[in-house]
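Field log, afternoon session.

UNIT: design team B
ACTIVITY: writing a sequence onto a fixed backbone
BACKBONE:
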C-alpha cells in the first residue's frame, strides 16, 4: 500500500471522526435522493494502458508510443480524488469531480522513436513527464425518482488536460552526445451523453451505475478531435450517520481520439480502470 494511499485514508478517517463528533448529525435523517449538497473525498487507484502519437512537420508521421512499455511510466498510481454534487431542484442535479495523474519515468529507448520533431535513437536515455488532469462536469435530469429508484439522463463536459514532456540524450561516435526534447499538450473539453441509475435499498445503503459516451467529430478554429470516449462508474455508499458516509466505486475510462491542435498533431489512446475509496458528507 503506497504512502499516498495511507495518507488519504488517514485524512478521511480524521475528517470522519471530526464530523461525527459534532452535535446534531443524527437529527432528522436525510432520505436518499433528498440531499441538497454532497461532497466526496478519497483516493483513486487506477491501472493504465496508454499510447500516443505526435506527428512532426517534416515527415508528418510520428511513431506510436506505448507510454508504459516504451517510456517506462508506471502502470499503476494512487491519486487524490474529490467530487461534489448540488441538487438544486427535486429532479435536477449538477455534479463535478477532479483528479490528476502525474507520472514520471527514466527509461532507455529500445528502438528509434520519433516524437514530434525529435528522433531519439535506440539506447538514448529518456526522461518523461506525463500529466493527465480530468474535470468532469455533469448535469443530471431524473426521469424516474422514487423512494428506492432514481433514473436520470445526463449531459456534461469531460474536460481533460494532457501534457507530455520527453527529454532524451544519447552518446554518439567519438565520445560526443546529442540531446533532444519533445513536448506537446492538448485540452479536450469533450461533451458526453449518458444515463445513471441509483437504487436505495435502505436509508443507509445506495448503489448505482453511471455510463457516458462521446463519439463525435469536433472541428473549429481552435481545436479538432475525432474519436470515442467511454466512462463508466459503478458505486456503492453506506451512510454511517445522517451526514457522514463512506463509499467504494470502480471507474473505467477509455479515450481513443485523433487530435489536430496547434500544440498537438497526432492521436491519444488512453485507458484506465481502478477502485475509488472515499468518505462522503451531505446536507
Amino acid at each position: 500500500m503506497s504512502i499516498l494511499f495511507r495518507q488519504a485514508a488517514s485524512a478521511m478517517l480524521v475528517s470522519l471522526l471530526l464530523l461525527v463528533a459534532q452535535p446534531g448529525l443524527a437529527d432528522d435523517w436525510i432520505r436518499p435522493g433528498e440531499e441538497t449538497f454532497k461532497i466526496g473525498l478519497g483516493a483513486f487507484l487506477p491501472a493504465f494502458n496508454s499510447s500516443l502519437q505526435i506527428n512532426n512537420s517534416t515527415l508528418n508521421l510520428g511513431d506510436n508510443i506505448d507510454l508504459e512499455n516504451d517510456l517506462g511510466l508506471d502502470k499503476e498510481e494512487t491519486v487524490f480524488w474529490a467530487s461534489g454534487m448540488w441538487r438544486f431542484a427535486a429532479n435536477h442535479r449538477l455534479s463535478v469531480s477532479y483528479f490528476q495523474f502525474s507520472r514520471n519515468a527514466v527509461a532507455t529507448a529500445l528502438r528509434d522513436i520519433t516524437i514530434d520533431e525529435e528522433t531519439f535513437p535506440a539506447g538514448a536515455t529518456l526522461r518523461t513527464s506525463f500529466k493527465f488532469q480530468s474535470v468532469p462536469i455533469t448535469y443530471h435530469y431524473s426521469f424516474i425518482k422514487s423512494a428506492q429508484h432514481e433514473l436520470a439522463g445526463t449531459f456534461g463536459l469531460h474536460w481533460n488536460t494532457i501534457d507530455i514532456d520527453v527529454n532524451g540524450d544519447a552518446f554518439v561516435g567519438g565520445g560526443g552526445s546529442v540531446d533532444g526534447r519533445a513536448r506537446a499538450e492538448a485540452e479536450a473539453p469533450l461533451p458526453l451523453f449518458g444515463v445513471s441509475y441509483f437504487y436505495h435499498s435502505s436509508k443507509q445503503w445506495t448503489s448505482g451505475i453511471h455510463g457516458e459516451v462521446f463519439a463525435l467529430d469536433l472541428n473549429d478554429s481552435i481545436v479538432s478531435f475525432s474519436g470515442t470516449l467511454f466512462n463508466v462508474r459503478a458505486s456503492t455508499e453506506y451512510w454511517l450517520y445522517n451526514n457522514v458516509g463512506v463509499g467504494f466505486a470502480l471507474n473505467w475510462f477509455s479515450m481513443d481520439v485523433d487530435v489536430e491542435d496547434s500544440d498537438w498533431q497526432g492521436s491519444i489512446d488512453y485507458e484506465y480502470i481502478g477502485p475509488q475509496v472515499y468518505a462522503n458528507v451531505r446536507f
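LOG NOTE: Residues 3-21 form the longest helix (19 residues).
NEXT ACTIVITY: expression trials, pending approval
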